[in-house]
Amino acid sequence: MTAIPPLAVIALLALVAAALVFVGIMLLRLQRRPSEAETRAQALAAERDRLAAELDQTRARGREDGEQLGALRAAAASHAQLVDEHAVLRTRFETVRSELETERVARGAAAAELADRSAQLETMRARMQTLETELSRVQSEHAQASAHLTHAEKARTQMQQFVDEAQARLSDAFAQLAGKAFEERGAVFEKNIRHATVQSKADIETLLKPFAEQLGEFRQRVDTLYGEEAKERATLVGALGELRTLNQDMAAQAAALTKALKGNAKVRGDWGELMLESVLRGSGLEDGVHYERQKQVVGEDGRSHRPDIVVRLPGDRCVVVDSKVNLVAWEQAMNADDIDAHHEAMHRHAIALRQHVRELADKQYPKLFGESALDVTVAFIPIEGALSGALGTDGSLQTYAFERRIVFASPNTLMALLRVVDGLWTRERIQKQAEEINKAGGLLLDALGAFLEDFEKIGARLRAADDTFSAAKRRLIDSKMAVIPRAKRLVSLGVKPKGKLPELLAPDADTEIEAFGQNLLKQVTTSTPGDRDAE
Q1: Number of CB atoms found within 10 A of residue 442's CB
Q2: Which long-range contacts (CB under 8 A, 24 or more apart) does 184-193 make?
Q3: CA 305/CA 373 separation, integer angstroms
Q4: 321 DSSP β-pair partners
Q5: In whole angstroms, what is the distance from residue 395 CA to residue 90 CA?
Q6: Percent residues over pLDDT 70 in the chain
Q7: When comparing pLDDT for 236 and 109, which is higher?
Q8: How far apart are CA 521 and CA 516, in angstroms?
Q9: Pairing outcome for strands 304-305 and 297-298
Q10: Cα 159 from chain centre
């Protein structure tokens, strides 16, 4: 039911009263008119009764609205109390959630790092197996090519020996039968054969030399990659031990330097930078290679800024890390005698850390370093308890920092973050080496293809030389103007060389019979008269 405002009730009552007055006046007038007055009086009486009933209903509604208004006021008071309790519970919830989120991020980073390392090892192992298979295949092809080359060299040597023997056998006959012209042609032919042989051998050596050099370079790169994989595996195995040792050392250093950190701001700053650099070195990063200290950068207003650390990332990216060591209030909270003093000191510690976030955001380091910088700045707090205590005291502190692009990092979380950065650098280095190996393998295959093409050319030249030799032999033996048959004819007629008669010029059976007849005829025709008388 809709509540009627009190002013509306009063106005309605006034209206009803005015209506009653009007009805009374009309009744007085009607009393003067006996006939019409009675009728109007009855109508006015009915109207009065109706208005009186409405007035009673209006009063009843007013009472109900008052009761509802009281109930609403009580509900509003109860709601305000519930809102206050909800705010307190929400603050506690945000504190617990912040602590859980910090722990979850740290565990997630460690798990992600281990998973990434495992994936890298599996990828490298698979790559090594692929490279070993490729190397075995290339070595097999090289062995086959060497065998083919040895066979070709042997065939060339045999052919050269055969050519030399043939030239030795034919040299005397050619000198006697063909004369100087044939000797010059034979010398030219021998020169061409020797030149082709020497040139082929030089070409083979020229082709094999870069092939052998590239194969040696390929083997060296594979050995280097094996060594780096073993080194990375050893580094990964010792990472957890180094992390544990580093945390213990940092805890000991924190306890030893507590007194020095209370008063001197310069000592606090130097100690914070020392702790930050210790975490960087423990993560496997190198100064001047993976990060820079106190790098100067000038803003648009001309002011010079020097962030503590600028960590380089693959792809020409970077992220700024700033160390904050304002731990006076935190130390007072740790040494407080009662709970109130502890809470008051922790509150001041959270306020100081919030002020540091504001100052760090005002420096706008990502804007100073341009597009190469990540859009966040890491605020390094060297003591785990100081950071978790501030976040537990001020539940909105982390959200306040996120809104201003500031990320808190303790030694453990920063170590995990930097391990990821080191893994990114390792992955990029392995990728570059794989690309170089792939490029070297492509060049090796190109050189092998060129060698095989030249090897085919050598075979074609050797076959051409064999064809030329066969053609020359046919011209010497089988053609109409062949010299060998004429030389055999001369031998059959009794012409003898000074040296041993070559087998190629030995007469066959028919030639021997013809030679016997010719010798007999010669003896008959050349005999003297005295000899005939004696007979």
Answers
A1: 10
A2: 189/472, 190/163, 193/160, 193/163, 193/465
A3: 15
A4: 309, 378
A5: 9
A6: 55
A7: 109
A8: 9
A9: antiparallel
A10: 57
Query: Per-residue pLDDT for 400 more than 80?
Result: yes
Give the Å distances, CA to CA, from 74 to 65, 68, 71, 298, 375: 14, 10, 5, 62, 50
pLDDT tens track for 518-534: 554 455 445 444 444 44
Sequence-ordered alpha helix ranges (H) in 178-284: 179-256, 258-261, 265-282
Higher local confidence (pLDDT), 219 or 170 = 219
29 by DSSP, 3-state: which?
helix
pLDDT surpassing 70 at residue 274: yes
298 φ, ψ (degrees, to nearest 5): -105, 130
pLDDT for 159 equals 54
How far is CA 206 from its chain centroid? 39
Place of tokens 């390392």: 117
Name the maximum alpha-carbon separation found in the chain. Answer: 222
Q: How far apart are alpha carbons 44 and 398 in whole angstroms? A: 77
Give the DSSP letter string of 141-195: HHHHHHHHHHHHHHHHHHHHHHHHHHHHHHHHHHHHHTHHHHHHHHHHHHHHHHH
Pairing of strands 291-293, 406-409: unpaired
Both tokens of 269, joined, read 């700053």
Q: How far apart are CA 351 and CA 346, in angstroms?
A: 9
Which of 100, 386, 354 lies closest to 250 in space, CA to CA?
386
What integer best gives the mean pLDDT of the chain?
69
Helix boundaries (H) for 364-507? 365-369, 384-393, 397-403, 411-477, 483-492
Q: End-to-end CA distance of the chain, in Å?
A: 179
The position carrying tokens 């019979």 is 513
Instruction: Tell me how far apart the alpha carbons of residues 310 and 305 are, in angstroms, rounded to a whole number.
Output: 12
Helix (H) or strand (E) holding 96: helix 34-177
Whose CA is closest to 132, among 209, 231, 229? Answer: 229
- Measured CA to CA, the distance from residue 136 to residue 271 in angstroms comes to 55
Instruction: Give 12-70 pLDDT, tens digit per residue.
Output: 777 777 777 777 776 666 555 555 656 766 777 777 777 778 777 877 777 777 777 77
pTM for the model stands at 0.36
Q: 471-501, pLDDT tens digit by residue?
A: 777 776 666 666 667 777 777 777 777 777 6
Q: Say what the pLDDT of residue 140 is.
A: 64
Report residue 123 as tokens.
């990828």
pLDDT-derived band at 178, boundaries 50, 70, 90: very low
**pLDDT at residue number 465:** 80
∠ CA 56-61-64, nearest 5°, is: 130
